[in-house]
Amino acid sequence: MAVPLIFNTIEQTALSSWLRESTSVFGFYFILLFHTIGMSLVVGASAVVDLRILGVAPALPLKPLKRLFTIMWVGLAINVTSGLFLLTAYPTKALTNPDFYIKMTFIGLAVFTMRKLSIQVFGDKSLDEMAMIARGKTMAAWSLVFWVGAVSAGRLLSETSKYVLYGHLWGS
Ligand code: HEM
Questions:
Q1: Does pTM top 0.90 for this prediction?
Q2: Per the domain annotation, does 136 fall within a domain?
């Protein structure tokens, strides 16, 4: 596989080397911790809304859950920021791994569905709870599928990567 030279250029930068090699607590694993916190906010809040629409905890009023969308966007912002730092640390490792593109596809589909739910279900004030559930059911089910896909593909990234750094091959 021809690995683009730009990956090597990024890996040679002070920031990339620091993220990979620093013994500081604020290095790579601190970023990964933030990545996990961001994920728990966006995926956790989405799951609460999706499961409520799909009939779990029917006694829980649905309309006030609209506030959870703010938590989802904050979680996503944390994961895009921390994700870009993780990518800067190991661009070859992530960008030569097909699993990374599978993960980004799931994230794109999940965010698209999250936006549709917030506009078409929670954004339409004329809908009562029954109508919100009827309109949101399919979107809620797909949202769960896409987030489970994103988290699974994310978790498998470090297990499925073939290169660690530019020119290095795992275990050869
Ligand atoms: C909300 C969306 C996201 C979710 C749910 C998610 C989920 C995950 C998970 C579960 C891991 C594995 C963590 C571990 O090994 O402990 C991971 C790692 C990673 N994520 Fe994300 N992620 C998201 C967004 C992003 C974005 C936007 C990027 C890039 C721009 C990104 C880049 C990475 C990278 C490079 C790693 C690998 C870290 C390593 O080398 O071990 N992620 N992500």
A1: yes
A2: yes
